[in-house]
């Protein structure tokens, strides 16, 4: 039983270099390598840069050098003798799991001990640390160290030298508030983070950020904080927490105004009509699934937590838990919060991705609560010893194997025929003979990731979000207005064109808002009872001010489109049709525009839409001269970027026709 946590805060690194070099030799590093390190640390000098001003250099007398990429590795080597001494000291009792103990966690300058029998273990831990400090010149900041008793254990901190403050509430370790009472973890971490995020949103709301900029802000500033809690704390945030964070985020996206596009749409992939705004629920599931993924890896467990969870779920294999039915909730190991949280996230993922949980080739036979004999989960030890553990071992060509085949393949005795009949009956009562035993789509993709993948959380998040791809656009309205095809590939390409035409997020957002039809027309105001008429007041046609009219048919707007398409046709020496599908949606599929000119055309059309939306209430101000000014600014910016990327030849190939036209315009 674990009695207490002890958190030690190490003081500023003042390690003795002689001890470091001795440790390197002890761990078997070669003399050449040690000589390289010695060279780096022979009279090293450093300087401090503050607000662009560099201080005079000064000599570093001890410690590893800050900012040096080698320093973290050197420090890990330097501190390892202390960790080894604590692990090897039998008088210091830690968490016992089978035949091993877990006593210590080290991260940067934070040291955490997990101790039983604190009356004995504390004194011994102090002795080891003090001895290490004497030989290494490395110090513990006792004033920032603390003891956290667990399970009501009475710990006399004053009886030890040095005495440590006793904390009966909670301690903070690596940004996580830890309490001996699991019920407090939510309020200490998730609730407090929610309040901090709410305050951040209020401060940032006045910043002149676009919708794309606000989504980027969330990804850079908020998502890492949330993901850290998702990954570190084995509890599920409440439904209220997710609703609240989504509500706060939506208000931030739309500057506290009524949302024009649903949050679920913004969270969709870009090629499906979204902006890839983070889906916090999906990120929570991805963070939990990283542990389930590690369960399924058939390799020696290198992480102590895996050994601990395997011990807790014995006799079941931890790798089998994802393929067992939800009736395992009745088993004792499900009361463990870490296992229960991970499994609950897995079942929710199956529900979200519409991957029904059904028996498959990876479903275990033994200790499976669905396969019960005499009211107990079935288990034939001899069969298991001979390699029969999962359903795919007893199925062949989608049929249950015959007894002679099993005897021949696995070498079980012929005296096992009764067990064979019992097993066959139990399995066939759960699985139809036509079942191919293929795992669910989500299970298959999870196992497909492979060993030690990079960016595991991102891959799992993508796996969840891409499981049910649906284009979220007002397709019906566009198809009705422009008599377009309802082919999903057509709309996917429209979405791709939005973001591939340029890296300029301002123009991307203009095109994105256009295809989502978010602008308020006179017709919409009339339906909302905010206007007495739905007739367009910007022209003399007397037409209803629908979205198509406002962006295409209105006389001053249509005049701009006509002039622009004629001009582009002349500049590029190819036909740029006066088509709403091209001008509004960016559809180039029905045009003969050469591929090298598609970017100039789409950018030019996006700039025209920018002019229309800037003059939404005074469309008579939509002049072609505005377009020449804006396209000139855009090309100058692109030229600067091309110079920085050393890509000026590609820039000229794309933009030279328009540059020539604009130069002529300036001379006129």
From TrEMBL:
This is Reverse transcriptase domain-containing protein. The lineage of its organism: Eukaryota, Metazoa, Chordata, Craniata, Vertebrata. Pfam families: RVT_1. It comes from Cyprinus carpio carpio. Residues 1-178 form the Reverse transcriptase domain. InterPro entries: DNA/RNA_pol_sf, RT_dom.
């Amino acid at each position: 039983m674990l009695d207490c946590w002890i958190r030690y805060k190490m003081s500023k690194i003042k390690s003795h270099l002689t001890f470091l070099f001795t440790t390197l030799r002890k761990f078997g590093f070669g003399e050449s390598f040690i000589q390289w390190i010695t060279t780096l640390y022979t009279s090293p000098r450093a300087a401090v840069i503050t607000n662009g001003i560099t201080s005079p250099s000064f000599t570093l007398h001890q410690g590893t050098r800050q900012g040096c990429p080698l320093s973290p590795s050197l420090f890990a080597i330097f501190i390892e003798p202390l960790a080894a001494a604590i692990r090897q000291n039998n008088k210091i009792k830690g968490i016992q799991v089978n035949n091993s103990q877990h006593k210590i966690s080290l991260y940067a300058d934070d040291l955490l001990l997990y101790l039983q029998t604190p009356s004995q273990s504390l004194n011994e831990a102090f002795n080891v640390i003090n001895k290490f400090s004497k030989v290494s010149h490395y110090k513990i900041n006792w004033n920032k160290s603390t003891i956290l008793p667990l399970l009501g254990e009475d710990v006399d901190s004053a009886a030890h030298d040095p005495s440590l403050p006793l904390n009966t509430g909670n301690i903070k370790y690596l940004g996580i508030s830890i309490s001996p009472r699991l019920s407090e973890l939510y309020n200490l971490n998730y609730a407090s983070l929610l309040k901090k995020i709410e305050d951040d949103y209020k401060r940032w709301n006045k910043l002149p950020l676009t919708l794309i900029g606000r989504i980027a802000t969330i990804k850079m500033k908020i998502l890492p904080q949330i993901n850290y809690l998702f990954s570190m704390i084995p509890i599920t945030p409440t439904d209220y927490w997710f609703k609240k964070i989504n509500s706060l985020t939506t208000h931030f996206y739309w500057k506290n105004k009524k949302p024009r596009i649903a949050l679920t749409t913004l969270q969709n992939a870009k090629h499906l009509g979204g902006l890839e705004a983070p889906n916090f629920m999906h990120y929570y599931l991805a963070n939990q699934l990283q542990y389930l993924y590690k369960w399924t890896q058939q390799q020696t467990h290198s992480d102590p937590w895996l050994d601990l969870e395997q011990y807790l779920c014995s006799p079941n294999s931890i790798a089998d838990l994802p393929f067992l039915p939800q009736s395992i909730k009745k088993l004792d190991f499900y009361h463990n919060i870490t296992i229960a949280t991970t499994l609950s996230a897995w079942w929710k993922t199956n529900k979200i991705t519409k991957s029904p949980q059904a028996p498959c080739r990876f479903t275990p036979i033994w200790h499976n609560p669905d396969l019960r004999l005499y009211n107990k989960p079935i288990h034939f030890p001899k069969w298991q010893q001979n390699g029969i553990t999962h359903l795919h071992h007893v199925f062949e060509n989608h049929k249950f194997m015959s007894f002679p085949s099993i005897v021949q393949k696995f070498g079980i005795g012929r005296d096992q025929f009764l067990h064979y009949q019992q097993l066959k009956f139990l399995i066939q009562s759960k699985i139809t003979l036509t079942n191919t035993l293929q795992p669910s789509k989500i299970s298959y993709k999870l196992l497909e990731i492979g060993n030690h993948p990079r960016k595991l959380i991102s891959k799992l998040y993508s796996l969840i979000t891409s499981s049910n791809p649906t284009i979220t656009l007002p397709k019906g309205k566009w198809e009705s207005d422009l008599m377009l095809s309802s082919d999903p590939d057509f709309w996917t390409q429209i979405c791709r064109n939005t973001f591939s035409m340029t890296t300029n997020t301002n123009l991307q957002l203009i095109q994105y808002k256009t295809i989502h039809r978010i602008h308020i027309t006179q017709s919409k105001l009339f339906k909302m009872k905010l206007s007495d008429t739905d007739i367009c007041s910007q022209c003399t046609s007397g037409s209803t001010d629908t979205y198509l009219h406002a962006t295409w048919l209105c006389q001053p707007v249509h005049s701009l489109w006509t002039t622009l398409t004629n001009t582009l046709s002349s500049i590029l020496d190819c036909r740029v049709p006066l088509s709403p599908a091209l001008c509004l949606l960016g559809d180039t599929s029905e045009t003969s525009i050469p591929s090298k000119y598609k970017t100039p055309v789409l950018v030019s059309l996006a700039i025209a839409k920018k002019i229309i939306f800037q003059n939404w209430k005074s469309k008579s101000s939509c002049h072609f001269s505005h377009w020449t000014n804006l396209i000139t600014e855009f090309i100058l910016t692109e030229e600067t970027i091309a110079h920085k990327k050393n890509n000026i030849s590609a820039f000229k190939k794309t933009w030279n026709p328009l540059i020539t036209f604009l130069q002529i315009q300036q001379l006129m």
